[in-house]
Amino acid sequence: MTLTKAELADMLFEKVGLNKREAKDMVEAFFEEIREALENNQSVKLSGFGNFQLRNKPQRPGRNPKTGEEIPITARRVVTFHASQKLKMLVEEAHHGQQQRDLEAASNG
Amino acid sequence: MTKSELIARLAGRYPQLVAKDAEFAVKMMLDAMTDALVKGERIEIRGFGSFGLNHRPARMGRNPKSGDKVEVPEKFVPHFKAGKELRERVDERINTIQS
């Protein structure tokens, strides 16, 4: 299963009481506000989830993997995401919990 | 931009909505995204990017103080890859060429 805008909109429709149109617009606007901030060189800090930051990368030498021809990779600005401590911890705990359950299932079976 | 600033901006876009609804909606969306990753599911938002988990295999590490070898267990860490639209919009170089 993959979480997409459609599922987020369904959830807002069911749990926040927005109508279908509003729910769809709200999901779109949520991601658009983040894009606009990043586009304006503003980092985005969503406490409990993570931070989106911008990094300027200098030009570096590259190669066309097919032809082997050397071409410079131009300087660019990229987005990086750093998960919050809370998100990292929740993901790790879930994984360890799963391992524990697998081990118990194996020893019981 | 912080979460509360994002909520204020969204509330500003929808004058018919109560500010509390915008706050609730943002919290619900972030919780749903967190839950998806916790369950090991991917998140795919067209034009924005995708979130998933990257596997870090177990490795031998060292305690920097004592120098003792310690086994660092495998783990999963959240990962984000920006989508095409976001990548293009934040990259000044492309913006400069187009304007």
Strand composition percent of chain A: 25-35%
State the strand order across the main sheet of chain A: 2-3-6
Most extensive chain contact?
A-B, 53 and 51 residues
Radius of gyration of chain B: 20 Å
Q: What would you call the shape of chain B?
A: elongated
How are the elements arranged and paired?
The complex is a heterodimer of chains A (109) and B (99).
Chain A: E1 2-3, H1 5-15, H2 20-39, E2 44-46, E3 50-57, E4 60-63, E5 70-73, E6 76-83, H3 85-108
Antiparallel strand pairs in A: 2-3, 3-6, 4-5
Helix pairs in contact in A: 1-2
Chain B: H1 3-13, H2 19-38, E1 42-45, E2 49-56, E3 59-62, E4 69-72, E5 75-82, H3 84-90, H4 92-98
Helix pairs in contact in B: 1-2
Task: Kindly summarize this structure in a few lines.
Chain A is an alpha+beta fold.
Characterise this structure:
The complex is a heterodimer of chains A (109) and B (99). Chain A is of the alpha+beta class. Helix content of chain A is 50%, strand content 27%. Chain B is α+β, with helices and mostly antiparallel strands. The longest helix of chain B has 20 residues, at 19-38. Chain B is elongated. Chain B starts with a helix and ends with a helix. The mean pLDDT of chain B is 90. The chains are: A alpha+beta (109), B alpha+beta (99). Strand 1 of chain A pairs parallel with strand 1 of chain B, so a sheet runs across the interface.
